[in-house]
Amino acid sequence: MKNNLALFGGKKTCNFQVKPFSSIGREELVAASKVIKSGTLSEYLGEKSREFNGGKYVNLFERQCEKYFGVKHAIVVNSWTSGLIAAVGALELNPGDEVIVPCWTMCATATSVLHWNAIPIFADICSEGYNIDIKKIEEKITKRTKAIMVVEMSGWPLDMLKIIKIAKKYKLKVISDNAQSIGSTYKNKYTGVLSDIGGYSLNYHKTIQCGEGGIIITNNNYYAQKMRLIRNHGEAVITNKSKKKLVNILGYNFRMGEIEAAISIQQLKKLKKIIKQKQTWAKILDNYLYDLKGLQIPKFKKGSSSSYYAYPLFYDEEYIGIKKSRIYKALIAEGVPLLSNSMNLLYDLPIYKNKIAYGNKNFPWSKNIYKGKINYGKQNCPQAEKLNKSNYLNFGLTLGNFNDKKIHTIGKAFQKVWKNLNQLN
Ligand SMILES: Cc1ncc(COP(=O)(O)O)c(C=O)c1O
Predict the structure, then answer these.
(1) What's the mean per-residue pLDDT of the chain?
(2) 181 ligand 1 Cβ < 6 A
(3) Largest CA distance in the chain
(4) CA–CA gap between residue 391 and residue 317 (Å, rounded)
(5) Which of 38, 77, 104, 285 has a beta carbon 3.0–4.6 Å from 125's, enabling a disulfide?
(6) Is the pLDDT of residue 3 over 70?
(7) Which residues pair with 174 in a beta bridge?
(8) Is residue 71 a contact partner of residue 194, using CB atoms and an 8 Å limit?
(9) DSSP string spanning 59-115?
(10) 305 CB less than 6 Å from ligand 1?
């Protein structure tokens, strides 16, 4: 850090602390207190009963989500990881079925597939939002493929109509992991609503939060019913007679509590305002960064918008001729609160790396299905590798309690580094 400061011969530009972002306030305090005073912190019963689908606030929050996002069903859960597991469960995959997932995402996207004894197949990403490369999806489809799982990283909306077209052609289902893109839009609709199943994370560092939680959305009645069963020990309430198609349910406890639901109701009311704020800050940054050579700022098509969980940048290392790692260090030395400058590509995690597809040990009944079929050691996604090494920079707009002044200063810090590029050579 010192070197970089000396290199540019001045003080670091961003001389301020960035506290973690939080929109939890009085409204949430009052809402949570009300639940505590009522004495009913959760109201589920894992048996056939009125309480099978949860308590007053859980149900209220679900109905509000349905209205807000414009979907038939919202099912709230205790994390989006649980939401993903329930979503994959609803597809009724067989052991060894394949689900295409991007290699560049948080690990839960892919492990939700493993939980059902199916196999995540990693697809490459592109520079647009570091999301799945739609052009590369088809080459991953085999006769075992049952679904495509897409992720909208940093809040960057995907061209879902193209993905749905591919899915229809091959009779596949689409799940979207919108953990980071709550409130983003595509064709003027909220992200997640066009998929067979979508949903959002409410963990503490997301745009809105309740500590830990998730919202699943779907317009499919059958999937909704199935996910409600998976959420709450469904195997205890179904009978072969009453729900013939719903046998083979392996239920969990994915239940959201009443305090979290009451807090989430307040947070949902704040979502539009929070996003507007992030978009204003993104615009300020755009104005500082748009003409810095070799740097591409986020840009969206008409009808699409980002909720800016983060502000991903494309740095053209080849064009500038300075290693991305040098630029990253220089920006950090200027006090720019960048996120880590690289992602863990999923196939490099020990659970996959050099392994024949996971499952044999933990799921002995599937041994014969997996053996020798997929060698993760041989999987690689060249574009993701290159983007990671040479191009990816990311600024966490949702992670800090910024204000306009700080964002202006961050913009100036970028400009200072670019003015001094020759010193980084
Ligand atoms: C892309 C993505 N998928 C899944 C998750 C898991 O969500 P949760 O933490 O709510 O379980 C996250 C959380 O950070 C995420 O970013």
Answers:
(1) 90
(2) no
(3) 78
(4) 6
(5) 104
(6) no
(7) 148
(8) no
(9) HHHHHHHHHHHT-SEEEEES-HHHHHHHHHHHTTPPTT-EEEEESSS-THHHHHHHT
(10) no
Q: Cβ(80) to ligand 1 under 6 A?
A: yes
Q: Does domain 26-267 have CATH number 3.20.20.100?
A: no
User: Do the Cβ atoms of 308 and 180 come closer than 8 Å?
Assistant: no
**Measured distance CA(167)–CA(92) in Å, rounded:** 17
227 lines ligand 1 (CB under 6 A): no
CB-facing half-sphere around the CA of 77: CA atoms within 13 A: 32
CB 331 within 8 A of CB 417: yes
Strand positions, DSSP E, 133-264: 145-151, 173-177, 185-186, 189-190, 197-201, 214-218
- In one-letter notation, the amino acid at residue 119 is I
Q: Determine the number of helices (DSSP H) and then strands (DSSP E) in the chain.
A: 14, 12
- The topology under which CATH files domain 2-20+270-342+385-424 is Aspartate Aminotransferase, domain 1 (3.90.1150)
Q: Give the relative orientation of helices 56-69 and 258-289 as an angle to the nearest 10 degrees.
A: 30
Most ligand 1 atoms within 8 A of CB, residue of 82, 106, 115 to mutate: 106
Q: Is 203 in the pocket of ligand 1 (CB under 6 A)?
A: yes
Number of the ligand 1 atom closest to the C-alpha atom of 180: 16
pLDDT at residue 373, as a whole number:
54
Q: Ligand 1 pocket test: which of 81, 103, 149, 345 has the largest number of ligand atoms within 8 Å of its C-beta?
A: 81
In this structure, the chain runs to a length of: 425
pTM for this one?
A: 0.94
Ligand 1 near 111 CB (within 6 A) = no
Stretch(es) of the chain classified as CATH 3.90.1150.10 = 2-20+270-342+385-424
Give the pLDDT confidence score for residue 177 in this predicted structure: 98
Distance in Å, CA 85 to ligand 1 centroid:
12
Indicate whether residue 196 lines ligand 1 (CB < 6 A). no
pLDDT digits (tens, 9 = 90+) for 17-27: 888 889 999 99
2 by DSSP, 3-state: which?
Answer: helix
Calpha distance 116→136 (Å, rounded): 25
Q: Record the tokens describing residue 104, joined without a space.
A: 């560049």
Distance CA 20, CA 402 (A): 9
